[in-house]
Amino acid sequence: MSASAVFILDVKGKPLISRNYKGDIPMGEIDYFMPLLVQHEEEGALAPLLSHGRVHFLWIKHSNLYLVATTLKNANASLVYSFLYKTVEVFSEYFKELEEESIRDNFVIIYELLDELMDFGFPQTTDSKILQEYITQQGNKLETGKSRVPPTVTNAVSWRSEGIKYKKNEVFIDVIESVNLLVNANGSVLLSEIVGTIKLKVFLSGMPELRLGLNDRVLFELTGLSGSKNKSVELEDVKFHQCVRLSRFDNDRTISFIPPDGDFELMSYRLSTQVKPLIWIESVIEKFSHSRVEIMVKAKGQFKKQSVANGVEISVPVPSDADSPRFKTSVGSAKYVPEKNVVVWSIKSFPGGKEYLMRAHFGLPSVEKEEVEGRPPIGVKFEIPYFTVSGIQVRYMKIIEKSGYQALPWVRYITQSGGSPPPLGPDCTWREDGAGGRGQTSDSLPSQPALPPPFSILYEEPGGDDPPPSTSALLY
């Protein structure tokens, strides 16, 4: 079973809009949600599922809104939460920003979307591109005659329309890897993982079938290609777009699919492996009592010299009562961000093998704080094109279409800093994390079917790199 009703509440718990799908729960039950939420929050036992009698509330928070689904029976919780997050994604596609104001300004469209997204408590059409074909933000003129149902809704391939034509047929492939690395003051690695996504931007005519080949270790073992000459990677937690034929992937590890038009995320994966810090950080903090504090930070690129890290930002925490900042850098620029109590050292271009230095001087008040402050970690943000840490490579992309046209597949590789790790203790002093120069959205792909500099044609040697050797990371 799935959801009985879906509510969108403001930050105070007042319903803004709702849709009752099954009618088996009184709509007034939502009044119990916010008191339950506040009670559990005060008790320190806040959970994504709250219950009042026989009614269960499954909820998520987005911006200043609560999205709540109610259910009376033993629902498929994973399905409900996936639906709530997908609802946020669809609304964001329509309104750019999903917040209370956009809800109040678009009641009619939201009611239409809620009717199409779910039917009798079960998710239906959740692809925003398909929904935008017949639910628009413009006023519709009255049309006489029979109503037209978009063919993509009833097609076996609901994510792609028929009759698509392009003068130039191309496919752009983005392999983006985010590095999550956490190192403590003793140089021990507390967290090390790679989270990767493969995103496509498709400009292909007709209804083509695509086959993507990776240097997947399981595939190499099945086909007898495993060996010292054929470097492979072992992918974990693989998640595919709905267009991929999962049965075929389970049988012979072939990634075969009919793609949606435009940009989409084909797959994501994770690798739990020891990663060498790509940008090594060392720092010395000298504190003079009742006077000043001096900070010296040294950054070294530990990747190949032919690669360049772009948009490097090194965030160094400073005491909350520091003032009168002065900086000296061997490259780039530094600025003090008092609201976050950090110094941000920005380096536009950081070649591999290079080493740079930054010095910061701060004044301290004459009366020193009694409490001992925690030591937040140093954070590093970056993006390295033409480079993958795991060594994953796109071996081929086959494009099969009945008209037999020629198409050009292009591929590029990018490594960037990953998402924020869990809260850290005082002994955790360094990390490579945060949002890199490229977010995990479709905007990371080219906006037009042109060839940006980081792309290379797939028939040439892919721009990936061998995984760096494992080390014990950073001493600081």
From TrEMBL:
It is found in: Endomembrane system. Keywords: Membrane, Protein transport, Transport. PANTHER family: AP COMPLEX SUBUNIT MU. Belongs to the adaptor complexes medium subunit family. InterPro entries: Adaptor_comp_med_subunit, AP2_Mu_C_sf, Clathrin_mu, Clathrin_mu_CS, Longin-like_dom_sf, MHD. This is AP-1 complex subunit mu-2 isoform X1. Transmembrane segments: none annotated. Residues 168-423 form the MHD domain. It holds the Pfam family Adap_comp_sub. SUPFAM superfamilies: Second domain of Mu2 adaptin subunit (ap50) of ap2 adaptor, SNARE-like. It is a peripheral membrane protein. Residues 421-476 are annotated as: Disordered. It comes from the Eukaryota. The keyword Metal-binding does not apply.
